[in-house]
Structure formats: structure tokens, C-alpha cells
Amino acid sequence: MPWIELSLTLHADQQERIESALNELGALSVTLLDAEDHPIFEPMPGETPVWPTIKLAALFDIVCDRVGLVHVLTDLVPEIAPDQLQFRDVPDEDWTRAWMDTFQPMQFGRRLWIYPWNIEPPDDAADAVIVRLDPGLAFGTGTHPTTALCLEWLDGVDLNGKTVVDYGCGSGVLAIAALKLGAARVIGVDLDPQALESSRDNAERNGVVDALELMLPADYTAVPQDILVANILAGPLDELAPLFAASIKPGHPFALSGILAGQDVELLRRYSEWFTDLDVAQREDWVRISGCRR
């Protein structure tokens, strides 16, 4: 059935009261979006940060009394003016199908493909390396430039029989790709227990879970391995440089991403203490740093 969407722009300190009032009035769902350009990167587990200015959208039953809804909401939250509130009709739609239709197979490098579960690879894709992911995953499917940069790098590295460290494994897409590209073992590390569960679930779906060892950072001990990839953020990458240096064998490769263009300058200086042949690749506003352990 169709719905009514009520939307307004508000400040972060108003969000909790307005959302609570909308729920009291029978909102079927409440969605928060960034009203300006204040990206939030990798909140800590349990954190629910919001943007300074928020666009809120609430769905109501199509038979809802719009005039009455405005009257009661402005009574409950007096700082809301009626002219702040906008309504639109939202037609009925299969939202899962709509999302799945936007998530199409993607190629990274020469061999590697990410396929959603709802699309079968063609018969002539026998030589392709295919990772299957649930279309319900919003991040870690390869659509973000940082993930794409790392997937392309993995496709170009000799992984056969190697042990790979995936630090900040998230959905597990990089770990799974590494295993499907020939790695013998991957150590996946993430500070979010839910991310570890997601990695495990996706690895099971791809038939590689037995070769994937998952752990929290507190349980990770740096032992020199063949390859390291880390798709996190510039701040943690700076702090973790000594740990990463202790996690890679001399002469072996690594790649870092989650780095905004411009942040690479300081990271290149930082990592040059332990790494050589440093190279920068860029996609949109994001960069990847790669090189070898001295």
C-alpha cells in the first residue's frame, strides 16, 4: 500500500525529542539523513552519532490526517513551525527488489568479480574469481571507492598459498576475495563483534570460512605474515603503523585505504620508516597507499 512521508530539517539537539514525538503519533518508520555535508566515518561499536543538521523523514499510513498530524506535532514540539513540515505520497514498492536491482555485478582488476546472490554468473565466467555477497549489505560490497581500490590491488598481487592479514575486515569482502584469489589463510581483525559475525557469515556463503580466522584487536598478536591489507581510516592507520610493520615479512607487500586525498602525505612520511616502494592510487576523493616491508 502507499504511504505518506513527512519530512523536515532539524538540529541534532532536536532529533531525540522530535523522533520520540513522531513515534508517539504512529510513525511506521523514521529515517535520518545528513542535511549538509558532514560525513561520519566508522563510529565505535555501540555509538550512534548524528550529524549537526539532519533531514528527518517519517512514514505514516496513507489514511493519516495530515492537518491533525501537523497540529499535534507542533503542540508536542513547540519550536517546530508548520511551514517546516513537508508531505509527499510514497507509492507502494518492493524495496528489497529495488535495492537488489541497483546492485549489479562489478569487476575489479582482471579476474575478480563481486556478484549479488540474486544474479547468477554467466556460463562463460569459468575463469572469473567470483565473490557472492548479500545485496542487503550497504557497505563492504565494493561500491565504496576504498573497497574498490583494495579489491583491485588484491587482484594484482600473487596470493597463492599466502597468509593475509585483513585489518578492519568489516563485511569480510577483502578477506573472502583474497581466499578466492588463492590465499591459503586470512586473519581478519575488527573492533566490532558484529563485523566479525558478518565476515563469518559471508565466508560461509562463499565456502571459505575454514580458512578465515577472525578476532578482535585485543586478541591479535603481530607475527610477520605474507601480505597485509587495511581499509580503515587515516587516524588509526597512523597509530597502527608499528603494528603493521611487525605484521609483514621483509620484502612483502601491503596496501592501506580509507584515506582521503591529502591525508596520504603524512601517512607516506610515517610509513616510509618501515616500508619502501610506496605508491599512491586515487579513486574519486579517496586514495590507496601500497608498498613493501623494508
From TrEMBL:
<feature type="binding site">
    <location>
        <position position="168"/>
    </location>
    <ligand>
        <name>S-adenosyl-L-methionine</name>
    </ligand>
</feature>
<keyword id="KW-0963">Cytoplasm</keyword>
<feature type="binding site">
    <location>
        <position position="190"/>
    </location>
    <ligand>
        <name>S-adenosyl-L-methionine</name>
    </ligand>
</feature>
<keyword id="KW-0687">Ribonucleoprotein</keyword>
<keyword id="KW-0689">Ribosomal protein</keyword>
<dbReference type="GO" id="GO:0005840">
    <property type="term" value="C:ribosome"/>
</dbReference>
<dbReference type="GO" id="GO:0008168">
    <property type="term" value="F:methyltransferase activity"/>
</dbReference>
<feature type="binding site">
    <location>
        <position position="147"/>
    </location>
    <ligand>
        <name>S-adenosyl-L-methionine</name>
    </ligand>
</feature>
<keyword id="KW-0808">Transferase</keyword>
<dbReference type="GO" id="GO:0032259">
    <property type="term" value="P:methylation"/>
</dbReference>
<dbReference type="InterPro" id="IPR029063">
    <property type="entry name" value="SAM-dependent_MTases_sf"/>
</dbReference>
<keyword id="KW-0949">S-adenosyl-L-methionine</keyword>
<feature type="binding site">
    <location>
        <position position="231"/>
    </location>
    <ligand>
        <name>S-adenosyl-L-methionine</name>
    </ligand>
</feature>
<dbReference type="InterPro" id="IPR050078">
    <property type="entry name" value="Ribosomal_L11_MeTrfase_PrmA"/>
</dbReference>
<dbReference type="InterPro" id="IPR004498">
    <property type="entry name" value="Ribosomal_PrmA_MeTrfase"/>
</dbReference>
<dbReference type="Pfam" id="PF06325">
    <property type="entry name" value="PrmA"/>
</dbReference>
<comment type="function">
    <text>Methylates ribosomal protein L11.</text>
</comment>
<comment type="similarity">
    <text>Belongs to the methyltransferase superfamily. PrmA family.</text>
</comment>
<keyword id="KW-0489">Methyltransferase</keyword>
<protein>
    <recommendedName>
        <fullName>Ribosomal protein L11 methyltransferase</fullName>
        <ecNumber>2.1.1.-</ecNumber>
    </recommendedName>
</protein>
